[in-house]
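FORM 7B - TANDEM STRUCTURE REPORT

SECTION 1: FIRST PROTEIN
SEQUENCE AND TOKENS:
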Amino acid sequence: MKSLLLTFPISFLCFTGLFAQTPVVTNPPTDTLFVQGAPVVQNKSLILKEEKTVKFYLNGYANAFANSSYYEPCAECVEFLDTYKSALTPQASYGAGLSLLFAPGNWVLETGVDYALLKEKFDYTNTAGVVYHSDNKTSYADIKLTGGYWFWRSKKLCSFVLQGGLVYNRLLGASGLVNDYYSPDNVVELSASGKLRDNQLSGTVSSKFIFLPQSRFKITFEPYYMGSLANVTEHQYPYLELYNRLGLKAGFIFSL
């Protein structure tokens, strides 16, 4: 009986110690499982942006100008020329044109055709009191070839082309009156006077201002000067005459 009582406490202590030494695991370790699926392929289109350098431009414009003349009279013709000049008053003249510009870089080559109408008012009273009045008109086809440099071409707001060259002036027609050199008290039709040459040559310089140069449609303003390099009058006429034009062209440029 005594041995039975001793055995019970020892068994209890051993049983209790066994539970005390065994830790309680609340989150047992687990293995991570990776599953490889099939690859996903996405098809997207590739867009390439190509910068295109425009080389050709079409320029259309209207033209307003003032015309003045330089005269070289013979010694016997000074009085006659003074009478003619006192009877003549230059008027505002105008025209229109179309040109093609080639500009692979900043250097520019331009060729085109202009129509120009020169206007003058003729008023003369002879010694008998007869009054002559006419609105003189002279028309030309101007074929030009110019070259220049395009400044600030890459700007967004404004750029300009400084250029110069030659112009062939072809007389299209003339109407009005002039003093008759062989009969100073009378007048003669301008077209029958033998005064004007059919073919002339001029030099020109200009500055073409281009607004919105990066857009396909651009606005232009071009102040210019054109002066005769050869006489506009026939050599047998009493005096030689050179034209000088100072004007402004306004229009558009379209990138081709």
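SECTION 2: SECOND PROTEIN
SEQUENCE AND TOKENS:
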Amino acid sequence: MNSEKFTYQSVEIKRVGPNKTVRRVSIRNGKGTKSVSKYVNGKHLGTIKKHIDQTHIPLIKGGTFISGLFSDCGCGKKSNTSKQRNKKSKTMKKK
């Protein structure tokens, strides 16, 4: 089977309480993308979409599990910027 004609799609939905995480992998014509969407209480928080590394495509084609495939797609994780803003605003109010 030629890698340029290889087509693959996979969707994984994980639910924990009111939270839902959707992980998608799609490969068309030898090029692949992965995406992670985050939902809380039915509201869409955001989606991160990235390219799949070319070394992972033959592994996916062979049916091999790739641990950490979505580790760089940190959708819905809290960043430190809001904490830093809160610290700045609290220190400004004290002065």
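SECTION 3: OBSERVATIONS ON SECOND PROTEIN
DSSP finds two helices and four strands in the chain.
The chain has one domain: 3-94.

SECTION 4: SIGNATURE
Preparer initials: ____
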